[in-house]
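Two folds, back to back.
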Amino acid sequence: MRPFLSLWLLLAMPAVLFLGTESSRAQTTTAAPALSTPLPAQIKTRGKLIVGVKCDYPPLGYVDAAGKHVGFEIDLVHRLAELAFGNPDAVDLECVSGPNRIPFITSGRVDFIISVLSYTPDRAKIIGFSDPYFDSGVKMIVPKGSKIANWSDVKGKTVTTTTGGTPAIWLGKCMLDVQVLPFDNTADSLAALKQGRAVAYAQDVTLLVGIVAKDPSLKIVADSEVRGPLNIGMELGDTALDAWANAAIAEMTKEDFFWKTLQKWVPADAIDGFKNAVPRPGGRQISNAEANDIYKCP
């Protein structure tokens, strides 16, 4: 489901203009409450977490111009370290990619994978998943002045996306009255949108956030489709670690950590579209069951 990330240099270099920093993280962390669920002894004895993260996927996880790991998921990792050891920096970060992140778990190289990892039934046969912390899915970006607000508005029109990706499969199955204009990379799709050859670019919202943050002439629209909740990945069958991770997510939900942190990384004029994207106290809770049929048509 994840799009090609060859656009890393295009997206990440300007990100320092609008995204948070390590210093802002230090200012917003709070004291670690005692979780009712114990951290597994082998990790507690080690004194730090080892976590695989994205290093090229702004604004969720990337390395900034100063060489620091930053992003929404990086803030999540540091909060986990604080909940585990009372120190947000008690963690080693390992850069992972789409192809190698699951082997990092199955080989025991890391405790957790927090790397834009969406739940799927097939992946759940190989690794364990926590409760979700973000409700990912496919949306669209359109020019700021566009009247397009949802999927029904692109009927009979041309929408661009990435060749062979989940959005292209879903569009071909569920939006039969839309002409799909696919390209092999994000840069070509964005060029088609800018040139008026397509009225919208459909892609995973985690990538779209980085694009609109860089380019204020674009905006994110539409209900989220092809739902793929993001989770913490871990060794399959490690019930103790799974229980601790879920207790940590419950604590962060209680303190509204996810929503407060998301506001650091999503542009102010786009944040309203993400009010239901993270678990919140008293709000809608996200379920992995939503990903059991990701190609479900609306």
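---
second:
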Amino acid sequence: MGCTFSIHSAVARESKFRTAVPPERILVETDHGWADPPAAIPCRIEWVEHLVAQQLSSSVEDVRGLVWGNLARIIRDTGTEHLLPPALRTLLRAGSDGQERSGPGRAS
């Protein structure tokens, strides 16, 4: 089908997505509340990465690299890279090699 699935903390905690969703089809999301300050978002992403890593019996770093690679593939396949800010384009190009990314808002 070619679908990509965005996993948030409730899905990562309470489902067995790992048996139905191939790793190359996973993205993570915060699913944070509308009142959460922007500073809370990176912490929530790290929590979801942790939960997904547990489900996949993997490390957080490997999950982060997987997700960045998946996102880079989607951007490349849809030809939408030109719509992104230059700094994000650079991160996604680097992320397509499967290595851990510091990502926006993260220390390198």
